[in-house]
Amino acid sequence: MKKWLVGAMACSGLLLASCANSEGEEVASTEAGRVRESELYERMKSEPTQGGMTYGEQMLQQILLEDILENEFKEDVTDEEVDAAFEEEAEQYGGVEAFEEMLTQQGMSADDVKENIRTSLYVEEAIMQHTEMTEEDVQAAYDEYVVNSTVAHILVEEEELAKDIIDQLNEGADFGELVAEYSTDTGTVEAGGELPLEPGRFVPEFEEAALKLEEGEITQEPVKSQFGYHIIKMVEEGEKGTLEEERENIETMIIEGYMQDQEMVQQAISQVVQDANVQIADDELSGAMQQFMQMPEVEEPAEESPDAAIEEDEEPAEDTETSEEDTETSEEDTEDAE
């Protein structure tokens, strides 16, 4: 970005005429008057948001963060990674074409989403480069890691139709073709009826029947649920490998967890921002990056007072004196008794 260059040229002798209006370009107008850039700029600097910053500070923060992150991590995030993440997101909406159509209806474009994805990947890079992941973290995550099985299903409304489909499958019919022909679960049709068997995701009847299947096996009776009748196939049984075999998946899972931790995200971005030599010329916008300029302080254990140590040493001496007094009293009592 070389906006400063454009600004310098605009105010040079070459384009002096365009700088004659000190109020800036016109932004909007009505019968009541005109709104110019300077008026809008001043209003944005003074109008507070619900978060406490002004709209101007909020917008400046966004611009600076985008520039800083891009400058720091543009070599680490490729267009191929962005495209792959976009396609993965699109799968949840029935593919790229359907996803882009939905975005258009919402007034967005694929490029808008890809830019958001790119920024998210920049933040991920910041976390990976500025957060220590210990072997203990990896081991703990591995211990909790569960590999989900993959199942496929055909959902129909009538039990007799479900039984007929089972018969066709037993005779060698292709499961994916029958999904396309009969299944009323439109969300899984394009994937051949496949979906991960995540614990707690499905109604109990479905999950219980699916867990009883061996890999490649199909339910021989329709599984009834509140949605209709299911024919379920175990496509692939989940099996956890060794720590080294699963390390990449485990570390990815840990990073995803870090991305959900706002304090960790804030700390990683703060380190990047503080190395970027941020200079804000307009004092009225000076608070834009304030939240990233102070690292969280670590509380140190309080030092013990020397006086307190002396008092502690003196206390046993008082007990000794008391003990001696008790001994003398005891001896006097003994003499009286004699």
What is the H-and-E element order? HEEHHHHHHEHHHEHEEHHH
| Adjacency order of strands in the biggest sheet | 4-3-6-5
Shape: elongated
* Helical/strand content category: alpha+beta
Overall mean pLDDT stands at 83
Helix content: 40-55%
> How large is the radius of gyration?
35 Å
Tell me the total number of β-strands: 6
Subcellular location: Cell membrane
Membrane topology: Lipid-anchor
EC number: 5.2.1.8
Protein name: Foldase protein PrsA
Can you walk me through this structure?
This protein is of the alpha+beta class and 338 residues long. It folds into 2 domains: 41-145 and 243-290, no CATH class; 146-236, Roll (Chitinase A, domain 3). Helices cover 55% and strands 10% of the residues. It has helices at 3-10, 37-46, 55-73, 79-91, 96-105, 110-130, 135-144, 159-170, 175-182, 186-189, 204-211, 243-259, 262-274, 306-337; strands at 26-30, 33-36, 149-156, 194-197, 223-225, 228-236. The strands form 2 sheets. Strands 4-3-6-5 form a 4-stranded antiparallel beta sheet, with helices on both faces. Helix 4 (79-91) crosses helix 6 and helix 7 packs across helix 12. The longest helix is centred in the last third of the chain and has 32 residues, at 306-337. The radius of gyration is 35 Å and the shape is elongated. Residues 1-22 form the signal peptide. It catalyses: [protein]-peptidylproline (omega=180) = [protein]-peptidylproline (omega=0). GO terms for molecular function: peptidyl-prolyl cis-trans isomerase activity.
